[in-house]
Specification:
The protein is mainly α. The protein is about 80% helix and about 0% strand. The protein is globular. The chain starts with a helix and ends with a helix.
Length: about 550
Amino acid sequence: MGKFTAAIVCILATLQASSGFSPAGRVGTLIAPTSASNSKAFRSPFANTIDNKCSTSSSLYMSEGDAAAAQPPKQTFMEKLKSKIPPANERKKLIPLASMFFFILFNYTILRDTKDVLMITAKGSGAEVIPFIKTYVNLPAAIGFTALYSKLCDRMEQKDVFYACTIPFLIFFAAFAFIIFPNVGVLHPHAFVDKIAMALPEGFGAPLAIVRNWSYAVFYVMAEMWGSVVANPLFGLGANVALIFSGQYVRFVSAMRANLPPGVDPWGVSLKYLMGAVVASGGCLVSIFSYMQRKVMTDPACVDQEKQEARKKKKKVKMGLKDSAKFLVSSPYIRNLATLVISYGMCINLVEVSWKAKLKAAYPDPNAYSAFMGNFSSATGSVTLAMMLLGRKIFQKFGWGFAAKVTPTMIGVTGMAFYALTLFAPFFAPIAASLGTTPLMLAVLVGAAQNILSKSAKYSLFDPCKEMAYIPLDQDSKTKGKAAVDVVGNPLGKSGGALIQQFLIFGVGSLAAATPWLAGILAVLLTFWFKAVNSLSVQFDEAMAAEES
């Protein structure tokens, strides 16, 4: 028995050492490294025993000839390639799912870029409008849709809920490009808003821009809802390919203006091509989903029907705002985790809106703005792909604590560099001239780099760190903790930065005048963020050690 036990232990050790990361239940999420030799924090207490048994068993029970005979024959390149291909039942699921994810993220990128172009470059509007539209238009719409979604889930099957949530979006986007946008001159009450604006302070210009360009505001909300309802923002490796393709499509469409005859609205033509692609991509998405419901979900070789029925009956734990707040107060571990989520949401919002204000100043034309955003999206996809591959190595070599600090460090360094270029533009003018550009364009490029690096760090490191933090918790704390962070952390992070910007705009008159305050607030938020990471890192290591023992 000793021989067989030692052999089994060796096999398990080899599998553990070679497994690296295990996939989580969500796309783009990485769980704790399982290699005991790579991270001290995750080293199994049985690692030394396993190592000793492996070496002892190999020396005592196997001769060199036996060991050579036991080695499998070398595979050819084609055999290795064939071994990597999933079996037929897995391919039947993976290919449609990957295609659906591609089309969802293809639309997500086009809509995300287009909503900013519409709202920021509209008449009487600017980046200052974003905090107000997120708070007073997007938030009520999200609450209303959540209530509607709950009703749909209670009365309809899950597959029908998908159709009910997806098809209306596609109809609206088509109607906007071909019906609403060509008639905005009649639909938008510019004269009425101009009269009101004369009687109000300058700080009210942003809220009035929402009323002035109400159809753009509706489009903005619908595009945001697509990202929340249909798209999952946790991008996997394949999903970032969609960002690259959609970004280049946006750039291609924006460049079509050069070949248009005089008198034709170039942005109107671009919008029709963009929304046409969204509708076509959405049609492919719905068709593939329908195929999966008919051919994949009913196939016992692809889906375990008993588990499928059990999953339908399983109820998700829900917590209200009051219960979530109580749980956060009572649990320092979850409170630190919520601080990470809130800090990220607020920090990225503060810098991103200021950057978009500079971007409008550099590219006031909608097509030029859209072309820049197309390149921006492609760059985000490419850098995120590289960061996801690098992120695995960071987790394995440095552990959870180091990985959790990468995102705030990235935001802090690049964010402060952007604010420095904004506040001290005359000082950087000679440097910009030596680089063949202007201080404004230099600020735009640094701000773009800030957004690209921050988002790629979020998808590759921040989100996996957040999911890994739940691993050592017991089932009750894990379930309630996730619910509390979803109810309190995510909304507060998204709306907190917007509220800060609103107060500053009303107080000092414009986003540009509020820049020194925004830089100071960013520094304070980063301080709390790093403090929470340090505290949570210690708690996480202790919890993992206790779980292993």
